[in-house]
TrEMBL record:
Keyword entries, A-Z: Cell membrane, Membrane, Transmembrane, Transmembrane helix
Localization, UniProt: Cell membrane
Keyword Chloroplast: no
Pfam families, alphabetized: DUF3522
Transmembrane segments: 161-182, 194-215
Topology class, membrane: Multi-pass membrane protein
Native organism: Scyliorhinus torazame
Protein name: Transmembrane protein 8B
Family as reported in the entry's similarity comment: Belongs to the TMEM8 family.
GO cellular component: plasma membrane
Length: 235
């Protein structure tokens, strides 16, 4: 809107104001009017971007958290809670429209969201391998450190997801093969676990990876990425 030297601009809520330079007005500071002293002669144009809070729950991790706690997988549940928290606030800060809400720096939220998502896959597959507790804890710690390093090198690299997933699946496959040989019976032993748990989980996880690798683009990012989170949490 045009602005003349005598104009005052009222701003409510928390808004960013751009008029050749950047101003910030916070409603909590009891500032309700913004005055630009002695602007140069001519038409000035001010754009406002609302920074009000929006309700952006990514709550698909609630069922995995509940199942993990019920099964006494408390460490895994804490990883899911971490992922749910930072994924929610990262996407609240990464909105394409007018309304965004950032509880901390965008880069920190993005890093924690990516790390939580990868760690959720890592701890789930390692837990499925049914290893000795000390070995499982070592792998969890190594996974956290190596994934943090990988995300610093290339946060959007496809192998950040495929590498840890394939490595964890390899560990699980070896553990299951050894257990099958020792017991002389296919592991897991019941067909219900294969039909109602492993097969659906594998199909859902494979679909999520396929969307991430081959379908997601800048144009459909906000839709495909949301579906990705739901599929990963569901798997």
């Amino acid at each position: 809107m045009p602005l003349t030297p005598s104009d005052n601009t009222s701003i409510s809520c928390e808004s960013e104001t751009s008029a050749g330079f950047l101003l910030l007005v916070n409603s909590t500071s009891n500032v309700t009017r913004l005055r630009l002293p002695y602007p140069q002669t001519g038409n000035w144009y001010i754009t406002l971007r609302s920074l009000c809070s929006a309700d952006n729950g990514n709550l698909m991790f609630v069922p995995p958290v509940a199942i993990a706690i019920r099964s006494e997988y408390l460490l895994e549940a804490s990883v899911y809670i971490f992922t749910m928290f930072f994924s929610t606030f990262y996407h609240a800060c990464d909105q394409p429209g007018m309304v965004v809400f950032c509880i901390m720096e965008y880069d920190v939220l993005q890093f924690c969201d990516f790390l939580g998502s990868l760690m959720s896959v890592w701890v789930t597959v390692i837990a499925m391998a049914r290893l000795q507790p000390i070995i499982k804890q070592i792998l969890y710690l190594l996974g956290a450190m190596l994934l943090s390093m990988a995300l610093q090198l290339d946060r959007h690299g496809l192998w950040n997801l495929l590498g840890p997933s394939l490595f964890a699946l390899g560990i699980m496959g070896i553990a299951w093969t050894v257990r099958t040989i020792r017991r002389r019976h296919c592991y897991p032993p019941t067909w219900k676990r294969w039909v109602f748990y492993l097969f659906p989980g594998t199909v859902i996880a494979t679909s999520a990876v396929a969307l991430y690798a081959f379908v997601e683009t800048e144009e459909n990012y906000f839709y495909i990425h949301s579906i990705w989170h739901m599929l990963i949490a569901g798997s």
